[in-house]
Design goal:
The chain is an alpha/beta fold. It has a domain at 7-229: Aminopeptidase (3-Layer(aba) Sandwich). It contains twelve helices and 16 strands. It has a five-stranded mixed beta sheet, sandwiched between helices. A three-stranded mixed beta sheet has the order 11-15-16, with helices on one face. Strand 8 (216-219) and strand 9 form a beta hairpin. The two termini are 18 Å apart. The protein binds zinc ion (ZN).
Length: 395
Protein backbone atom coordinates (compact mmCIF):
# COMPACT_ATOMS: atom_id res chain seq x y z
CA UNK A 1 0.00 0.00 0.00
CA UNK A 2 0.99 3.59 -0.33
CA UNK A 3 1.58 5.36 2.95
CA UNK A 4 -0.49 8.42 3.59
CA UNK A 5 -0.14 11.32 5.89
CA UNK A 6 -2.70 9.80 8.17
CA UNK A 7 -0.98 6.43 8.37
CA UNK A 8 0.50 6.83 11.84
CA UNK A 9 -2.83 7.93 13.19
CA UNK A 10 -4.47 4.90 11.64
CA UNK A 11 -1.99 2.65 13.40
CA UNK A 12 -2.69 4.29 16.68
CA UNK A 13 -6.32 3.35 16.48
CA UNK A 14 -5.88 -0.10 15.04
CA UNK A 15 -7.77 -1.75 17.82
CA UNK A 16 -10.40 0.90 18.04
CA UNK A 17 -11.24 0.54 14.37
CA UNK A 18 -11.17 -3.22 14.68
CA UNK A 19 -13.84 -3.15 17.26
CA UNK A 20 -16.07 -0.19 16.53
CA UNK A 21 -16.78 2.59 14.05
CA UNK A 22 -13.89 5.08 13.97
CA UNK A 23 -15.92 7.90 15.39
CA UNK A 24 -17.38 5.96 18.32
CA UNK A 25 -17.33 8.18 21.39
CA UNK A 26 -15.15 7.11 24.26
CA UNK A 27 -12.65 5.18 22.17
CA UNK A 28 -9.61 7.31 22.65
CA UNK A 29 -6.77 6.92 20.20
CA UNK A 30 -4.26 6.73 23.03
CA UNK A 31 -5.77 3.68 24.72
CA UNK A 32 -3.23 1.17 25.99
CA UNK A 33 -3.76 -2.52 25.35
CA UNK A 34 -4.63 -3.04 29.02
CA UNK A 35 -7.69 -0.89 28.43
CA UNK A 36 -9.15 -3.29 25.91
CA UNK A 37 -11.58 -4.88 28.27
CA UNK A 38 -14.17 -6.33 25.92
CA UNK A 39 -13.48 -9.88 24.74
CA UNK A 40 -13.56 -8.89 21.08
CA UNK A 41 -11.07 -6.12 21.77
CA UNK A 42 -8.70 -8.51 23.47
CA UNK A 43 -9.12 -11.01 20.70
CA UNK A 44 -8.39 -8.37 18.07
CA UNK A 45 -5.26 -7.35 19.93
CA UNK A 46 -4.11 -10.95 20.30
CA UNK A 47 -4.55 -11.65 16.59
CA UNK A 48 -2.70 -8.47 15.75
CA UNK A 49 0.14 -9.30 18.16
CA UNK A 50 0.44 -12.86 16.89
CA UNK A 51 0.35 -11.86 13.23
CA UNK A 52 3.20 -9.37 13.73
CA UNK A 53 5.21 -12.19 15.31
CA UNK A 54 5.36 -14.16 12.06
CA UNK A 55 8.24 -12.97 9.89
CA UNK A 56 6.22 -13.25 6.72
CA UNK A 57 8.80 -11.62 4.47
CA UNK A 58 9.94 -13.41 1.33
CA UNK A 59 12.65 -15.93 2.11
CA UNK A 60 11.50 -16.82 5.59
CA UNK A 61 8.70 -19.25 4.74
CA UNK A 62 6.39 -17.97 7.43
CA UNK A 63 3.30 -17.06 5.39
CA UNK A 64 1.84 -20.60 5.46
CA UNK A 65 2.28 -20.63 9.24
CA UNK A 66 0.36 -17.37 9.59
CA UNK A 67 -2.34 -18.65 7.23
CA UNK A 68 -2.70 -21.82 9.31
CA UNK A 69 -2.87 -19.82 12.53
CA UNK A 70 -5.61 -17.59 11.15
CA UNK A 71 -7.47 -20.57 9.72
CA UNK A 72 -7.45 -22.09 13.19
CA UNK A 73 -8.94 -18.90 14.62
CA UNK A 74 -11.73 -18.94 12.06
CA UNK A 75 -12.56 -22.59 12.70
CA UNK A 76 -12.50 -22.00 16.44
CA UNK A 77 -14.80 -19.04 15.87
CA UNK A 78 -17.46 -21.19 14.26
CA UNK A 79 -16.61 -21.05 10.57
CA UNK A 80 -17.13 -24.49 9.02
CA UNK A 81 -13.98 -26.24 7.89
CA UNK A 82 -15.24 -26.35 4.29
CA UNK A 83 -15.41 -22.54 4.27
CA UNK A 84 -11.82 -22.01 5.46
CA UNK A 85 -9.20 -22.63 2.79
CA UNK A 86 -5.45 -22.44 3.20
CA UNK A 87 -4.17 -22.51 -0.38
CA UNK A 88 -0.49 -23.42 -0.63
CA UNK A 89 1.53 -22.04 -3.50
CA UNK A 90 5.14 -22.39 -4.53
CA UNK A 91 6.71 -19.25 -5.93
CA UNK A 92 9.78 -19.01 -8.19
CA UNK A 93 12.81 -19.87 -6.14
CA UNK A 94 10.97 -22.72 -4.50
CA UNK A 95 9.61 -20.94 -1.45
CA UNK A 96 6.25 -22.03 -0.13
CA UNK A 97 3.73 -19.31 0.47
CA UNK A 98 -0.04 -19.45 0.79
CA UNK A 99 -3.34 -17.65 0.50
CA UNK A 100 -6.24 -17.85 2.87
CA UNK A 101 -9.87 -17.70 1.77
CA UNK A 102 -12.73 -17.67 4.24
CA UNK A 103 -16.41 -17.53 3.36
CA UNK A 104 -18.92 -15.98 5.73
CA UNK A 105 -22.16 -17.45 4.48
CA UNK A 106 -25.14 -15.16 4.20
CA UNK A 107 -28.79 -16.07 4.03
CA UNK A 108 -28.96 -15.02 0.38
CA UNK A 109 -31.94 -12.77 1.02
CA UNK A 110 -30.45 -9.87 -0.92
CA UNK A 111 -29.97 -11.99 -4.02
CA UNK A 112 -26.62 -10.31 -4.55
CA UNK A 113 -23.24 -11.79 -5.34
CA UNK A 114 -20.64 -11.88 -2.56
CA UNK A 115 -18.39 -9.03 -1.49
CA UNK A 116 -14.70 -9.89 -1.45
CA UNK A 117 -12.55 -8.31 1.26
CA UNK A 118 -8.83 -8.51 0.62
CA UNK A 119 -5.58 -7.99 2.48
CA UNK A 120 -2.08 -9.47 2.34
CA UNK A 121 -0.27 -11.51 4.95
CA UNK A 122 3.31 -10.95 3.79
CA UNK A 123 5.51 -7.99 4.66
CA UNK A 124 8.65 -6.43 3.31
CA UNK A 125 11.52 -7.79 5.35
CA UNK A 126 13.02 -5.82 8.21
CA UNK A 127 16.38 -6.47 9.78
CA UNK A 128 16.13 -6.43 13.57
CA UNK A 129 19.60 -4.87 13.81
CA UNK A 130 18.38 -1.91 11.76
CA UNK A 131 15.39 -1.23 13.98
CA UNK A 132 15.23 0.45 17.36
CA UNK A 133 12.71 -2.17 18.44
CA UNK A 134 12.30 -5.77 17.33
CA UNK A 135 10.23 -5.48 14.14
CA UNK A 136 8.60 -8.85 14.72
CA UNK A 137 7.36 -8.13 18.21
CA UNK A 138 4.32 -5.92 18.54
CA UNK A 139 5.29 -3.08 20.81
CA UNK A 140 2.83 -0.50 22.03
CA UNK A 141 4.44 2.72 23.11
CA UNK A 142 3.02 6.17 23.74
CA UNK A 143 -0.23 5.19 22.09
CA UNK A 144 1.39 3.86 18.93
CA UNK A 145 2.07 0.35 17.72
CA UNK A 146 5.51 -0.49 16.41
CA UNK A 147 6.41 -3.54 14.35
CA UNK A 148 6.74 -4.61 10.72
CA UNK A 149 3.29 -4.73 9.21
CA UNK A 150 1.49 -2.85 11.97
CA UNK A 151 -0.10 -0.91 9.15
CA UNK A 152 0.83 -2.66 5.92
CA UNK A 153 -0.92 -4.98 6.03
CA UNK A 154 -1.29 -7.00 9.20
CA UNK A 155 -3.51 -4.23 10.39
CA UNK A 156 -5.84 -5.11 7.52
CA UNK A 157 -5.50 -8.83 8.07
CA UNK A 158 -6.12 -8.54 11.80
CA UNK A 159 -9.03 -6.13 11.65
CA UNK A 160 -10.82 -8.14 8.98
CA UNK A 161 -10.24 -11.37 10.88
CA UNK A 162 -11.31 -9.90 14.21
CA UNK A 163 -14.38 -8.29 12.67
CA UNK A 164 -15.47 -11.55 11.04
CA UNK A 165 -15.04 -13.38 14.33
CA UNK A 166 -16.88 -10.72 16.29
CA UNK A 167 -19.83 -10.69 13.91
CA UNK A 168 -19.94 -14.48 13.85
CA UNK A 169 -19.90 -14.65 17.63
CA UNK A 170 -22.77 -12.16 17.74
CA UNK A 171 -24.82 -14.44 15.52
CA UNK A 172 -25.02 -11.95 12.69
CA UNK A 173 -25.93 -13.34 9.29
CA UNK A 174 -25.22 -11.22 6.22
CA UNK A 175 -27.75 -10.98 3.41
CA UNK A 176 -25.11 -12.22 0.97
CA UNK A 177 -21.86 -14.12 1.30
CA UNK A 178 -18.78 -12.22 2.43
CA UNK A 179 -15.44 -13.62 1.35
CA UNK A 180 -12.03 -12.90 2.81
CA UNK A 181 -9.08 -13.26 0.47
CA UNK A 182 -5.65 -12.93 2.07
CA UNK A 183 -2.74 -13.17 -0.35
CA UNK A 184 0.78 -14.29 0.53
CA UNK A 185 3.23 -12.47 -1.75
CA UNK A 186 1.78 -9.04 -2.42
CA UNK A 187 5.08 -7.35 -1.70
CA UNK A 188 6.98 -9.44 -4.24
CA UNK A 189 5.57 -11.49 -7.09
CA UNK A 190 1.84 -11.17 -6.37
CA UNK A 191 1.34 -14.66 -7.76
CA UNK A 192 -1.00 -15.63 -4.95
CA UNK A 193 -3.15 -12.61 -5.78
CA UNK A 194 -3.31 -13.73 -9.37
CA UNK A 195 -4.20 -17.27 -8.34
CA UNK A 196 -7.05 -15.97 -6.20
CA UNK A 197 -8.77 -14.62 -9.29
CA UNK A 198 -7.78 -17.43 -11.66
CA UNK A 199 -7.08 -20.82 -10.14
CA UNK A 200 -9.29 -20.18 -7.12
CA UNK A 201 -11.88 -18.01 -8.82
CA UNK A 202 -14.60 -20.38 -7.72
CA UNK A 203 -13.84 -19.47 -4.10
CA UNK A 204 -13.42 -15.73 -4.55
CA UNK A 205 -15.88 -14.67 -7.23
CA UNK A 206 -17.70 -11.56 -6.03
CA UNK A 207 -19.65 -8.56 -7.18
CA UNK A 208 -16.79 -6.30 -6.09
CA UNK A 209 -13.78 -6.28 -3.80
CA UNK A 210 -12.81 -3.96 -0.98
CA UNK A 211 -9.11 -3.70 -0.24
CA UNK A 212 -8.00 -3.26 3.37
CA UNK A 213 -4.58 -2.27 2.08
CA UNK A 214 -5.78 1.03 0.68
CA UNK A 215 -7.62 4.12 1.67
CA UNK A 216 -8.27 4.37 5.37
CA UNK A 217 -9.58 6.74 7.96
CA UNK A 218 -8.03 9.41 10.09
CA UNK A 219 -9.07 10.43 13.55
CA UNK A 220 -8.29 13.26 15.91
CA UNK A 221 -6.65 13.05 19.34
CA UNK A 222 -9.95 12.19 21.04
CA UNK A 223 -10.79 9.49 18.55
CA UNK A 224 -13.19 11.64 16.58
CA UNK A 225 -13.52 10.77 12.94
CA UNK A 226 -12.01 13.28 10.54
CA UNK A 227 -12.07 11.69 7.11
CA UNK A 228 -12.26 8.35 5.40
CA UNK A 229 -10.32 7.90 2.22
CA UNK A 230 -11.25 5.57 -0.59
CA UNK A 231 -8.57 4.59 -3.03
CA UNK A 232 -9.65 4.67 -6.64
CA UNK A 233 -6.39 3.68 -8.29
CA UNK A 234 -2.94 2.45 -7.35
CA UNK A 235 0.30 4.29 -7.73
CA UNK A 236 3.02 2.34 -9.40
CA UNK A 237 6.30 3.26 -11.01
CA UNK A 238 8.35 3.01 -14.13
CA UNK A 239 12.10 2.51 -14.23
CA UNK A 240 14.36 4.18 -16.77
CA UNK A 241 18.03 3.71 -17.49
CA UNK A 242 20.13 6.72 -18.40
CA UNK A 243 23.34 5.77 -20.13
CA UNK A 244 25.91 8.35 -21.14
CA UNK A 245 28.78 7.44 -23.45
CA UNK A 246 31.83 9.56 -23.95
CA UNK A 247 35.13 8.98 -25.79
CA UNK A 248 36.96 9.60 -22.56
CA UNK A 249 40.70 9.81 -22.26
CA UNK A 250 43.54 9.10 -19.93
CA UNK A 251 43.89 10.79 -16.59
CA UNK A 252 47.21 12.20 -17.77
CA UNK A 253 45.33 13.93 -20.58
CA UNK A 254 42.18 15.27 -18.97
CA UNK A 255 39.53 16.60 -21.29
CA UNK A 256 36.88 19.12 -20.41
CA UNK A 257 33.99 16.76 -20.90
CA UNK A 258 33.30 13.28 -19.62
CA UNK A 259 30.37 10.96 -19.06
CA UNK A 260 30.02 11.86 -15.41
CA UNK A 261 29.63 15.56 -16.10
CA UNK A 262 27.19 14.88 -18.93
CA UNK A 263 25.08 12.66 -16.74
CA UNK A 264 25.21 15.21 -13.95
CA UNK A 265 23.96 17.84 -16.37
CA UNK A 266 21.11 15.57 -17.44
CA UNK A 267 20.17 14.97 -13.84
CA UNK A 268 20.16 18.68 -13.14
CA UNK A 269 17.73 19.14 -16.00
CA UNK A 270 15.66 16.30 -14.60
CA UNK A 271 15.69 17.97 -11.20
CA UNK A 272 14.35 21.16 -12.73
CA UNK A 273 11.71 19.41 -14.78
CA UNK A 274 8.11 19.56 -13.70
CA UNK A 275 5.57 17.26 -15.21
CA UNK A 276 2.41 19.00 -16.33
CA UNK A 277 -0.32 19.16 -13.74
CA UNK A 278 -3.34 17.11 -14.64
CA UNK A 279 -6.45 16.27 -12.71
CA UNK A 280 -9.41 13.97 -12.79
CA UNK A 281 -12.83 14.34 -11.30
CA UNK A 282 -11.70 12.09 -8.44
CA UNK A 283 -8.58 14.12 -7.65
CA UNK A 284 -10.45 17.41 -7.72
CA UNK A 285 -13.13 16.05 -5.43
CA UNK A 286 -10.41 14.71 -3.15
CA UNK A 287 -8.85 18.14 -2.78
CA UNK A 288 -12.21 19.82 -2.43
CA UNK A 289 -13.31 17.53 0.40
CA UNK A 290 -9.90 17.29 2.07
CA UNK A 291 -9.69 21.07 2.18
CA UNK A 292 -12.65 21.06 4.55
CA UNK A 293 -10.76 19.05 7.16
CA UNK A 294 -7.25 20.32 6.49
CA UNK A 295 -6.24 23.58 8.05
CA UNK A 296 -3.53 26.08 7.42
CA UNK A 297 -1.64 26.75 4.25
CA UNK A 298 -2.16 23.22 2.94
CA UNK A 299 -5.91 23.29 3.38
CA UNK A 300 -6.07 26.63 1.64
CA UNK A 301 -3.94 25.34 -1.24
CA UNK A 302 -6.23 22.33 -1.60
CA UNK A 303 -9.28 24.51 -1.79
CA UNK A 304 -7.74 26.85 -4.33
CA UNK A 305 -6.48 23.98 -6.43
CA UNK A 306 -9.91 22.34 -6.44
CA UNK A 307 -11.37 25.65 -7.58
CA UNK A 308 -8.71 26.24 -10.20
CA UNK A 309 -6.24 23.47 -11.09
CA UNK A 310 -4.12 26.07 -12.87
CA UNK A 311 -3.54 28.07 -9.68
CA UNK A 312 0.26 28.28 -9.68
CA UNK A 313 0.49 29.33 -6.04
CA UNK A 314 -1.62 26.41 -4.88
CA UNK A 315 0.40 23.98 -7.00
CA UNK A 316 3.60 25.29 -5.49
CA UNK A 317 2.34 24.53 -1.98
CA UNK A 318 1.07 21.08 -2.94
CA UNK A 319 4.42 20.20 -4.46
CA UNK A 320 5.87 20.17 -0.96
CA UNK A 321 3.66 17.23 0.02
CA UNK A 322 4.88 14.12 -1.82
CA UNK A 323 1.96 12.02 -0.60
CA UNK A 324 -0.39 14.37 -2.43
CA UNK A 325 1.68 14.79 -5.53
CA UNK A 326 2.24 11.95 -7.88
CA UNK A 327 1.52 10.38 -11.22
CA UNK A 328 2.79 12.41 -14.09
CA UNK A 329 0.14 11.57 -16.56
CA UNK A 330 -3.31 10.24 -16.41
CA UNK A 331 -4.45 7.29 -18.41
CA UNK A 332 -5.93 9.03 -21.41
CA UNK A 333 -9.24 8.47 -23.10
CA UNK A 334 -7.50 6.88 -26.03
CA UNK A 335 -5.44 4.66 -23.81
CA UNK A 336 -1.92 4.74 -22.59
CA UNK A 337 0.14 7.19 -20.64
CA UNK A 338 2.95 9.30 -21.97
CA UNK A 339 6.30 9.90 -20.46
CA UNK A 340 9.19 12.05 -21.58
CA UNK A 341 11.96 10.52 -23.61
CA UNK A 342 15.57 11.58 -23.82
CA UNK A 343 15.02 13.42 -27.08
CA UNK A 344 12.42 15.67 -25.49
CA UNK A 345 9.45 13.84 -26.90
CA UNK A 346 7.07 11.50 -25.17
CA UNK A 347 6.45 7.82 -25.32
CA UNK A 348 3.14 6.13 -24.86
CA UNK A 349 2.77 3.25 -22.49
CA UNK A 350 0.20 0.60 -23.08
CA UNK A 351 -0.16 -0.07 -19.38
CA UNK A 352 -3.08 1.25 -17.50
CA UNK A 353 -2.82 3.10 -14.27
CA UNK A 354 -1.08 5.94 -12.58
CA UNK A 355 2.62 6.20 -12.56
CA UNK A 356 5.36 7.44 -10.42
CA UNK A 357 8.35 8.25 -12.46
CA UNK A 358 11.59 6.72 -11.32
CA UNK A 359 14.77 6.03 -13.16
CA UNK A 360 18.20 4.64 -12.79
CA UNK A 361 21.04 6.64 -14.15
CA UNK A 362 24.30 5.14 -15.28
CA UNK A 363 27.38 6.99 -16.42
CA UNK A 364 30.03 5.16 -18.27
CA UNK A 365 33.28 6.48 -19.57
CA UNK A 366 35.35 4.37 -21.90
CA UNK A 367 39.01 5.17 -22.13
CA UNK A 368 40.26 3.89 -25.43
CA UNK A 369 43.68 5.36 -24.72
CA UNK A 370 44.95 2.47 -22.75
CA UNK A 371 48.26 0.89 -21.95
CA UNK A 372 46.79 -2.39 -23.04
CA UNK A 373 47.04 -3.01 -26.81
CA UNK A 374 44.47 -5.73 -26.56
CA UNK A 375 42.02 -3.42 -24.90
CA UNK A 376 42.77 -0.73 -27.39
CA UNK A 377 42.16 -3.11 -30.27
CA UNK A 378 38.93 -4.35 -28.85
CA UNK A 379 37.76 -0.84 -28.20
CA UNK A 380 36.57 -1.90 -24.80
CA UNK A 381 38.99 0.28 -22.92
CA UNK A 382 38.61 0.75 -19.24
CA UNK A 383 35.31 1.74 -17.97
CA UNK A 384 34.13 3.80 -15.11
CA UNK A 385 30.59 3.31 -14.05
CA UNK A 386 28.35 4.73 -11.44
CA UNK A 387 24.70 4.35 -10.80
CA UNK A 388 22.02 6.11 -8.88
CA UNK A 389 18.30 6.03 -8.68
CA UNK A 390 16.34 9.11 -9.44
CA UNK A 391 12.69 9.62 -8.95
CA UNK A 392 10.43 12.51 -9.74
CA UNK A 393 6.79 12.99 -9.09
CA UNK A 394 4.07 15.28 -10.18
CA UNK A 395 0.37 15.62 -9.77
ZN1 LIG B 1 0.40 -3.50 1.44
Amino acid sequence: MIPTRTASVAVAVALATAAAPPAAPGLAAQDASADYTEPYQRQAFEIYRTAIGFRTAAGHGQVPALARYLAGEFRAGGFPTEDVHVLPQTVPGGEETASLVVRYRGDGSSGLDPILLIAHMDVVDALPEDWERNPFTLIEEDGYFFGRGTLDDKFGVSTLTATFLRLKAAGWVPTRDLVLGFSGDEETGMLTTRALVTTHRGLTDAEFALNADAGGGSVGPAGEGIAYHIQTSEKTYATFDFTVRNPGGHSSMPRPDNAIYQLAEALRRLEAFRFPVRTTEATLRYFEESARVTGGELGEAMRRFADDPADAGAIEVLWAYPELVDTFERWSQRGGVRWPTADGGTRRSTRRGWWNWCGRAVARTNWPVSSSPRRRRSGAGWSWRTGMRVCARTI
